[in-house]
Write a structure and sequence with these properties.
Elements lengths: L2 E9 L18 H20 L7 E4 L10 H6 L3 E4 L2 H9 L3 E9 L2 E2 L3 H10 L6 E6 L5 E6 L4 H10 L3 H8 L5 E6 L2 E2 L3 H11 L10 H13 L6
Helix pairs in contact: 1-8
């Protein structure tokens, strides 16, 4: 009989570490765009690693990022398994001999903290087929979680870039209970960038972002302060 285990997966659908391939965020050059995207991924990885439940974490990057992670960046992810193909993630999970409660977080999201992971895993009762959908106030998908669906079924809305409404419609075809929650920020446009700045300017943001990552974001804010107005 398989044990039930929990896992956090941070999924980036664009090149973040390969600077030449990183898409420019608004008017930013590729170097600062990469700094923004990699800082978001690194931040969520740090929070996952700080979980008191010792949740194993996986970083799912795109193929273009293979061989682009620097040595100092590798140390940041030393407690995570890094993959560049979703099929490899599926194979890895299936090889562990476990039923998984899986939390998948978008790589360009911020706004989940350690206690949220405890809340999520507590909601994933093995006797109740549940899917949790976290979205921003304007309907951008932040994260999905379930112990009832396979990894392939759960990650589809993330890969496809679905919003909250599309994600709920996607999961409605399965025999599961859907729970939609509003939480987090997804960095996709100028409004989101300003929200990130405003959020990180408050003391309430401390559980969501370490000082080290905060300094990286500050470097981006200073260089592109025109985007904050």
């Amino acid at each position: 009989m398989f044990n039930r285990r929990n896992c956090i997966i941070i999924s980036s659908v664009i090149p973040a570490f390969n600077i030449e391939m990183t898409p420019s965020f608004l008017e930013m050059d590729k170097n600062f765009s990469s700094l923004l995207y990699t800082s978001l991924i690194e931040n969520m990885s740090e929070i996952a690693a700080a979980s008191p439940d010792n949740l194993p974490s996986i970083i799912l990057l795109v193929e273009a990022d293979r061989n682009s992670i620097l040595k100092d960046e590798e140390s940041v992810f030393e407690n995570s398994n890094i993959f560049f193909d979703s099929a490899d993630v599926s194979d890895h999970l299936n090889s562990q001999g476990a039923h998984w409660n899986t939390i998948i977080i978008k790589g360009n999201a911020i706004g989940l903290e350690v206690k949220d992971f405890t809340f999520i895993t507590g909601k994933l009762d093995p006797d109740i087929k549940t899917v949790l959908v976290f979205s921003t106030a304007k309907g951008q998908l932040v994260a999905v979680a379930s112990g009832a669906l396979t990894f392939e079924e759960l990650i589809e809305p993330v890969i496809q870039g679905f919003d909250n409404e599309q994600t709920l419609k996607h999961f409605s075809k399965y025999d599961v209970q859907l729970q939609s929650l509003t939480k987090g920020i997804v960095i996709e446009d100028k409004e989101d960038f300003r929200k990130l700045y405003d959020f990180l300017s408050t003391k309430q943001s401390i559980p969501y972002c370490s000082q080290k990552i905060h300094e990286k974001f500050t470097e981006v804010f200073i260089e592109f302060k025109s985007l904050l107005h």
